[in-house]
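pls design
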């Protein structure tokens, strides 16, 4: 139990690779332009894809024919930021390549931006990592937990200063985790119905909020944690519990307290890592592609 999910074929994108591929702001800007318009920029004035050239001292490209201007960062997290693009890329790289997360304090030390700026950049990168969630099917584990708060406080359900989170994981598949106001049946049941197809098999523990969920069509198998049973054949919630331990280990190492308001951003980051754990592309490039 509680093994880290294996990262198998994923390529590494080292700090050397970063220096080589993204040596300066202009190269970063060009990457964003090519990422947004892989077939070339369609000029709205000329009404076709035209050649564009970079203006020397501004982060924009002009149409060769009519001089119409395009700002590749418009509408992205980089827009109107006083922080150079190269620094943004470096921060994204550091966030992506540290498996257990990195603190704003470390970013402040290593890149020279202020703590406030580093913190704001974190939040924006995490916003990018929020994924749209297709409905879960097949064998699905559902579990609720509490995250954050005082480290040595009361533990378990209802612990003070902690934030309730519901998680769903499809076996051999994706995870989703959402901060919720509580773990009452009136919260959990609508969450399950919204995100899990009624033909799925649900695996949960014996927490009462899951009682009578079969009314909605689900097959429901429960593990008796209170009787110290953790695995009974296929009946267990180990996948979602492994995910919780990853999140908790990451958060306790980096953040001493997590406010409810920002917990979702952290959850987004861990969910993203988990869901892409077997991708071949490096985590840095996966992060960048979200822009
Ligand atoms: Zn034009």
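designed seq:
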């Amino acid at each position: 139990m509680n093994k880290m999910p294996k990262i198998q074929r994923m390529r590494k994108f080292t700090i050397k690779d970063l220096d080589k591929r993204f040596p300066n702001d202009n190269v970063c800007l060009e990457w964003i332009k090519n990422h947004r318009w892989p077939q070339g920029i369609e000029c709205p004035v000329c009404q076709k894809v035209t050649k564009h050239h970079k203006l020397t001292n501004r982060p924009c490209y002009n149409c060769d024919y009519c001089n119409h201007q395009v700002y590749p960062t418009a509408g992205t997290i980089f827009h109107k930021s006083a922080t150079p693009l190269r620094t943004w890329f470096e921060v994204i790289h550091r966030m992506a390549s540290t498996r257990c997360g990195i603190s704003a304090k470390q970013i402040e030390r290593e890149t020279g931006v202020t703590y406030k700026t580093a913190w704001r950049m974190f939040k924006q990168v995490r916003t990018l990592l929020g994924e749209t969630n297709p409905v879960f099917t097949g064998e699905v584990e559902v579990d609720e937990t509490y995250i954050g708060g005082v480290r040595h406080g009361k533990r378990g359900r209802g612990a003070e200063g902690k934030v309730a989170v519901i998680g769903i994981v499809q076996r051999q598949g994706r995870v989703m985790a959402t901060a919720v106001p509580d773990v009452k049946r009136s919260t959990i049941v609508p969450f399950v119905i919204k995100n899990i197809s009624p033909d799925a098999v649900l695996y949960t523990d014996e927490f009462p909020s899951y009682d009578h969920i079969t009314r909605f069509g689900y097959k429901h198998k429960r593990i008796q944690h209170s009787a110290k049973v953790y695995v009974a054949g296929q009946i267990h919630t180990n996948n979602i519990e492994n995910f919780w331990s990853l999140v908790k280990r990451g958060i306790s190492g980096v953040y001493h307290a997590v406010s409810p308001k920002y917990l979702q951003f952290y959850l987004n980051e861990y969910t993203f890592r988990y869901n892409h754990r077997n991708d071949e592309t490096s985590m840095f490039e996966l992060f960048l592609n979200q822009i």
